[in-house]
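Next up, a chain.

===
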Amino acid sequence: VQLQASGGGLVQAGGSLRLSCATSGRGRAFTDYYMSWFRQAPGKERDFIAGINWRGTNTLYRNSVKGRFTISRDNANNTVYLRMNSLNPEDTAVYYCAAERSRGTVPPRPNEYDSWGQGTQVTVSS
């Protein structure tokens, strides 16, 4: 599966953004994949942010984004979203979407995922 992330940009602290990750490719259906968002700040490791199961009924979040970020998916349009509210400068990073074939839950570690998007930069100014 190919992933294309978009929606990043520059926003002031307290602002909001919505990231999108469109998927494409032959073979497996979008609903065969557990979808997640990760982020990586300069000089830091890639961190799990949020994940969602194939039906959208089970979500998982990093503690620091709970209550501010919401992951969702549109299976009809093969797209996963990350709505980010109350952004702060610590949220500045390149955000990546990731996919792994599973109808269950995938552990929140980068090495568990085979497919990655190219990343979209999110910069939050203070």
Remarks:
- The radius of gyration is 14 Å.
- The longest strand covers residues 93-101.
